[in-house]
Design goal:
Length: 449
């Protein structure tokens, strides 16, 4: 077993960098908002998100930084000979043994070749939304409900305002979403009454009702508050799905609200055929419906590194209510939410009710900011049919991606490890072995250790 190798030493910096970024995102109350992970301009490496997530993107960025730094070093310092490494050569040694490229630079060339190779799939992959023909995709209309002051004359919209606005949109959208903490309830009983009112008066859509409620745990006298979202329709007397926010904004929310520890769940909407499509052409008997798996999360939860790690299947649509207080914060959260949707292989409905809120659709070919600030909107999207609910590689492996990076980094140090996954990395070591002729390696066996 070798405890050290030039190839492992080359890869260790990108691996340490991505590992630290991952750990910081877990420790920090603001998640990835306070890390150096890139969220824009991923370009040729964006296709990697469903496979290795932001962890892999961090590794690629650090690897490029290493290559660029070594190119700058070579330019500033010039070529070095083998003698600089402490190898003693006989005075009559051939000239070809005296001057050789520095092994570290050879490793940089191999690493840059690997990074370029990782960018090539982006030239072949189609990053556009799905086409619209019914046999291959399911059209789904979704909407963000933000009542405007011009229509309802309330700077803070009321429950009736949200219901009226939802009624206005219900004939145009099958799924509607209210922004984070759209309405406030003083008790769970008041919340249930409001849910019943929404269920009765908004009959044409599934409505994601975002709310803030006061509640009291059994055996306690003091009430607490929490922020949640519930999916409601006329098809059920109870919410189809309920989720409470797990990551609270430090100071602004952490002092007044209680965070949840319950992970998101999935509810499957059975989508019936549009009026212009025959039910037999839409889906097979006996139900003649198409399943749309839906999940939800709230605002800062999307800055967490693995907010959907507990899901056993892939959702088609993520309901994402938010409320930010400044345009820059709204855009930063929008970028984080997009990354989580791309890692999950899902489509995101982001509805931000803040003054500078950025709302839109992201994931599965969509990357569209539809509106900034208050005001409702509707967007038609396409969902894969039949929908593949298998999790992406990153959603399945999660934090284990970090272990695989370390495994690939140290594989060359452990001679019995030669798996296909790390084959390209181990091949780099074999190339480096040829930098120094075999007779020199025999004379100085510690050269490569």
């Amino acid at each position: 077993m070798r405890t050290s190798s030039l190839w492992s030493q080359t890869l260790v910096f990108p691996t340490i960098w991505s590992t630290i970024a991952f750990i910081v995102s877990f420790i920090s109350p603001a998640g990835r908002l306070l890390t150096w992970s890139p969220v824009q301009g991923l370009g040729a490496y964006q296709w990697m998100l469903p496979t290795v997530g932001t962890i892999g993107i961090d590794w690629v960025m650090a690897a490029w930084a290493l290559v660029c730094s070594q190119v700058a070093e070579a330019w500033l310092m010039g070529d070095e000979s083998i003698e600089d490494d402490g190898l003693l050569l006989a005075p009559d040694a051939p000239a070809r043994l005296r001057v050789k490229p520095h092994p570290t630079r050879q490793a940089s060339i191999i690493l840059s070749a690997i990074l370029v190779t990782l960018a090539l799939p982006s030239l072949l992959l189609n990053e556009l939304p799905l086409p619209t023909p019914y046999p291959t995709s399911t059209p789904l209309s979704v909407g963000c409900v933000i009542p405007s002051f011009e229509r309802y004359k309330h700077h803070v919209p009321t429950l009736d305002d949200y219901i009226s606005e939802s009624q206005r949109l219900t004939n145009s959208a099958r799924v509607l979403l209210w922004p984070e903490s759209a309405v406030q309830f003083s008790s769970e009983e008041e919340r249930d009454q409001a849910f019943a009112k929404v269920r009765t008066e908004v009959t044409g859509s599934y409505v994601g009702v975002s709310f803030e409620e006061a509640y009291t745990l059994p055996g306690e006298k003091r009430s607490s508050k929490r922020t949640g979202v519930a999916l409601i329709s006329k098809a059920s007397p109870e919410p189809h799905m309920m989720y409470y926010k797990r990551h609270l904004v430090p100071i602004a929310e952490s002092f007044s609200l209680t965070h949840s520890t319950v992970p998101p769940s999935i509810y499957t909407i059975d989508l019936t055929h549009p009026k212009e499509v025959n039910k037999t052409d839409w889906a097979p008997a006996p139900n003649y419906t198409r399943p749309i798996p839906v999940t939800a999360s709230i605002c800062l939860d999307f800055a967490a590194p693995l907010p959907f790690s507990d899901l056993n299947s892939r959702p088609a649509l993520i309901l994402a209510p938010a409320r930010t207080w400044h345009l820059s914060i709204g855009f930063a959260m929008w970028q984080q939410a997009k990354r989580r949707a791309e890692e999950l292989g899902s489509t995101l409905l982001w509805c931000d009710g803040g003054a500078g809120g950025v709302s839109g659709i992201a994931g599965q070919g969509y990357d569209q900011v539809i509106q900034v600030g208050p005001g409702s909107w509707i967007q038609n999207i396409e969902i894969q049919y039949p929908f593949d609910d298998r999790r992406t590689t990153f959603a399945y492996l999660g934090w284990f991606i970090v272990s695989l990076l370390w495994f690939a980094t140290l594989a060359d140090s452990v001679e019995f490890v030669y798996l296909p996954f790390v084959g390209s990395f181990a091949a780099g070591r074999r190339v480096l072995d040829r930098v120094v002729p075999q007779n020199q390696a025999q004379q100085n066996p510690n050269l490569l250790d």
